[in-house]
Request: fold
Amino acid sequence: MNQQLQTMINNMPEKTGRSLDDWSNLLRQSGLDKHGDIMKLLKGEHGVSHGFANTISILYREQQAGGPPAEDDLVAAQYAKKAHFLPIYQDLISQVQKFGKDVTIAPKKTYVSLVRNKQFGIIKPSTMKRMDIGLNLKGEATTDRLEADTVFGGMCSHRVQLNEAGQVDEELLSWLEKAYQSS
Reply:
């Protein structure tokens, strides 16, 4: 479990009034199993913030399904139909890990989060022809290549589109490192 998730679980009783086990018991009794229905219950009837409601729902549903998928399985699923992007992903991970021992690689269902103290980047094979790199570079001016984010729903300030391995260059790596340094 990544450190950010563990911190949310540890803070859950104080921030939501109940522990994760308490929320799981409540959800089990409710009989709800769809993410949207669970979110509606937690946010609407119990006043839980979106972030905590989302975490509670995901963890509860994973528990009901027998546990979360392994991180390697998440990455494999992302690149199953986009295998041509896997070498780019592997190169990016290798480069990012050189930034420091405090880099956490946190695979999610559709992307991989890059975390130091907080998330500083995202790697996502978005389409068959495009991979998106999300960056948290608040205050950084956009360029033709470093665009304002329109893909990650507010999780990043900027993004860079990749179509081929040669685009993992010094410019991209410098933006990634700047995002890492400021996280």
Q: What stands out?
A: Residues 42 and 141 are 38 Å apart (CA to CA). The chain has a mean pLDDT of 91. Residues 71-181 form one domain.
